Amino acid sequence: MPAVMEGPLADLSSWKTDHCSLVKALEIVGTKSALLILREAFYGTTRFSAFAERIGITETAAAGQLRHLTEAGLLEKQPYRDAGGRTRDEYVLTEMGRDLLPVVIGLMQWADKHLQDGGPPLLYVDQETGAPVRAGLRTDDGHPVELEELGVRLHPAWRRPRSSS
């Protein structure tokens, strides 16, 4: 059973998805290399050459994705200097980038469940207790929400952006 579309959203043929937040998100992180760069940033990678090497993409592709993710606000450059070397930039997650952690973990856990024959290669745990960590939908007070319990309604404060013509 799908989510419950409420009010004017119940008739799917009567409204368009032209302002969908998922589309906006995919414009930023909708490529394999963008998601892999984020994964590496979550794992602690900060140096340009390490991103390209760990992901297995060309330096040109890495430079383009790092620029894109930086311009979008998910990463920021911070200068560093190795002893005897020149000043260079490393890439660190911003709050906006860190907020994607549940999305990336959720995708990995989905693949662990449905695409890994021998079980997951990595476990995500609370570092202090060792308790498994799971991505999922919860209300603000912590109640888990399944697809059949999910309601979708118009946000009362949202206003359609004016057309730019």
Automatic annotation (TrEMBL):
Protein name, UniProt field: HxlR family transcriptional regulator
This protein's record includes keyword Ubl conjugation: no
Occurrences of domain HTH hxlR-type (ranges): 20-119
Annotated keywords: DNA-binding, Transcription, Transcription regulation
GO molecular function terms attached to this record: DNA binding
Transcription regulation listed as a keyword: yes
Pfam families in the record: HxlR (PF01638)
The organism of origin for this protein: Amycolatopsis thermoflava
PANTHER family the record matches: TRANSCRIPTIONAL REGULATOR, MARR FAMILY (PTHR33204), TRANSCRIPTIONAL REGULATORY PROTEIN (PTHR33204:SF18)
SUPFAM superfamilies assigned: Winged helix' DNA-binding domain
